[in-house]
Each structure stands twice: as C-alpha cells, then as structure tokens.
Amino acid sequence: MKNLITTVLFILPICIFAQNTDYKVSSYKDEGFKAPNTHYIGEAWLNGVLQADDETDFNITKATFKANSTLDWHKHSTSQILIYVDGEGYYQERGKDPVILKAGDVIKCDKETEHWHASTKDSDVTYLAIYGGGQPTTWTEVVSQEYYDSVADQLKD
C-alpha cells in the first residue's frame, strides 16, 4: 500500500503539470498537393508549410517541380526568399541574365521585382519560398516553352 501511495504521489504531479500537446505541426517533407496548371508548364506540387496569421506575417511554401517545368513571370508585394533544398532550377529577374540555383542556395527577390523560376531540363527542383502574408503574387507574362528552352540552351555549358 505504501508503494502504491508513493507511486501515485510521484505520477500525479507529472500528469497534472505535463506539457500541453496541442501543437500545430507541419512538415516541409510532405509532398503537398498537385497544383493546377494555371501559371506554369509541367508538373508541380505545393505544400503550405506555414500560413501567415495575426502573429506571423509571412508564409512558407514548399514547391516541387518536375524536370522541364516552369512558373510564369510574376512579382510579389513583399520580398521573397527561395531556399533550394533539392535539385537544380533556373531563376531570372527581368532585365538580368538567368542563373542555375542548386540545393543549398538561397536567393532573395525584392518586392515588386518581376521574375520567374523553374526546374532545369534534367532535374526536379524543390525549394522553400518565404514571403509576406496576404496575396503576394501578381502574374505578369507566360514563360513559353520556346523561351524556357532558350534559357536551358544558354545555361547548359
């Protein structure tokens, strides 16, 4: 009986003061959902890892594009940070030369700067996009397959 009382007195405070486990947990490793072909060519998956709210004024979205896929030209009302976590992709801002970004690369695009990004011809790409809350994307021009192919040819050397 004495052991039972000791055990109860030991376990009861642990149960009473245990941490609340009502956490909202997401994972950037989840594939997400297949995006509708609205502003891109190819195949893409999106995972809304974190959504802006009253306390957090930015979103984090994981995007995965299959090889030979591209977003259209667009701009955001806030700056955007792209963190490349897997594969290789093309990135270009209006008026500048395109570049190849690889896993581990991080690039910041200033607000209202027109740009596009994509997977390369031969590699899928996955990146985390960090950008302000609200409606940050304005689509401006279609990236044609011909233009994408010309960038791929330009950057393959």
From TrEMBL:
Q: Which SUPFAM superfamilies match?
A: RmlC-like cupins (SSF51182)
Q: Where is the Cupin type-2 domain?
A: 64-131
Q: Which domain of life is it from?
A: Bacteria
Pfam hit, one:
Cupin_2
Q: Which InterPro entries match?
A: Cupin_2, HNL-like_cupin, RmlC-like_jellyroll, RmlC_Cupin_sf
Protein name (Swiss-Prot/TrEMBL) = Cupin domain-containing protein
**What lineage does the source organism belong to?**
Bacteria, Pseudomonadati, Bacteroidota, Flavobacteriia, Flavobacteriales
